[in-house]
Amino acid sequence: MKRAIIIFASVLAALGSRAHTEESPAKEAYKDFKIVADRNIFNSERSGDRRESPRQQRTVRAAPDEFRLVGVMLNGEDATAFFEGSRSDYGGQWKKGDLIAGFKIIDVRTDGVTLEKDAKHTQLPMASAMKSSEEGVWNLTKTTGEFVRPSSESSSAAQGSGDSDGDSGEVLKRLMERRRQEVER
Predict the structure, then answer these.
(1) 63 phi/psi in degrees, rounded to 5
(2) Which of 20, 69, 70, 73 is deepest in the core (most CB within 10 A)?
(3) For every residue of the chain, which 3-state class applies, written as one string?
């Protein structure tokens, strides 16, 4: 490494003295050692000659907006629905009458919630999601355990989100049904 620095300093000194004797502009001096910056000759992990091709413009699509019903809590007349979403304002706890993504929560039950938008009612079952299309239309989707999160969050949070085999949804439904029967007694 010390040897490489000495060589680099020698090259720069030679280029600098030549530039001063010829009194060339600074741009020409940079042009002479531009190859050092382009090829990075001091990088031990460098590989073969690489040519820069014109950059192709890629269209990057943003992840669609989405929110999912992950739980409910009933306490007498007080009912709360718990959501998580692709945006921070879609997550959290919501009560009857609140708005989430333009949908008004009409009813909260142990098996899901009823949403209303533009005088149209939508039943959102437990562990299901509402996903917006590119046209801005919201569609009901069944989740698989994976959830699209904002890019700022780590992917490890998405990996530990649960089973992907679908049996967990059935177990959850049975437990909620049993709880409803206990409450009705």
Answers:
(1) -65, 140
(2) 69
(3) CHHHHHHHHHHHHHHHHHHHHHCCCHHHHHHHHHHHHHHCCCCCCCCCCCCCCCCCCCCCCCCCCEEEEEEEEEECCEEEEEEEECCHHHCEEEECCCEECCEEEEEEECCEEEEEECCEEEEEECCEEEEECCCCCEEEEECCCCCCCCCCCCHHHHHCCCCCCCHHHHHHHHHHHHHHHHHHC
Decide if 88 is inside a domain: yes
Structural domains of the chain, count = 2
Same domain for 106 and 174? yes
Band the pLDDT of 34: cuts 50, 70, 90.
Answer: confident
Asked if 23 and 82 sit in the same domain, the reply is no
Query: Do 74 and 32 sit in the same domain of this protein?
Result: no
Does residue 100 sit in the same domain as residue 174?
yes
Q: Residue 96: which domain range?
A: 66-145+170-184
pTM of the model: 0.47
